[in-house]
Amino acid sequence: MSDYKYAFLEPGRFARGWHIVAFSRELAVGEVQRLHYFNRDLVLFRGESGTAAVVDAHCPHLGAHLASDGGRLSGDTIACPFHGWTFKGDGECVAIPYASKIPERARHALRGWPLREASGFIALWHDPWNEPPEDYLPEIPDWGHGEGGWGDWHFHRSRIRAQPCDVIENIVDIAHFPHVHGGEVKAFENRFGERTVTQLSTVQRSANARMVIPPGLPFDMEAVNEQALTQQADAWGDATYHGPAIMYYYTESRGKDVSYKSWWVNYHTPVNDTEVDLCSAVIVSGLDGQPLAEEFVQQYALGAHAAFGSDVEIWKDKIYQADPILCDGDGPINKLRRWYEQFYLPRQGAAGESANQRD
User: Alpha helix (H) ranges present in 153-293?
Assistant: First the structure.
């Protein structure tokens, strides 16, 4: 048995599941990018057909980085800049320019990573046990430039010292709203599914609540909060983690001056044992088919990123308490931890090991 109460606290272990690594518009056709996630060097590229791919960064021949010299794409393949060994997006070696045949050992020596590109982002499937991807990540039908004026994502990304388990616990943490987000909780409920956990909440601005204000904001967050107190809106929101690392949040707000609906995608992707990439992305549209002023759209995105940044200010300085002292006003934190544990264990028997050995 591990010395750790939870598998997700063990160094070198990263969650099985979908993890966002880029937004679609960040990767042009014919472009190669370096990535570093799960303590591995990776290469992301988009071939001539427009299909994105991720492979391990280092050629299995003599170890050159496939993105050296800017990367060399041909069609939907990438060639090593050292000796020209050529690979498809799934990692299969399809050509060695100076060899009469490809050694059998070389054909699948490079790891290709399953990808899903939908709703304007690129998600990578990580599984330490190399099992097939699961189909639990839904599309966001409102994303795009069609009717409703939703448009593309407004996003803000940061890399901080934290662990993924620090981030995901926000989904059940009812008690932090009046201390971090300046809000009073009117209604709050958590629902657990097999691969999902949902927060149903109604939170109103409150003059008696405190806020954590991220540094360097291009606007006065306290002034915005004070203005919102005088213009309270009827608002609600549903947030759902789909798997261990990607949260969708849908919210509607109906106010005197402006009414809107919005999707947020918040994700955290582990870089190594001590760092994660955090990102908050939003699209917003008017309720009842009413268009929104572009100034409001821009300000809303800034406010959404600032709200996420308030949590970031806490995460980057905290430590993880594996055996916390909890009270009756806390949300179902231990239940969330047992649910989250499944993504760090093999699929078969994961629930039994989590509940029986690591409670």
Answer: 164-168, 177-180, 221-230
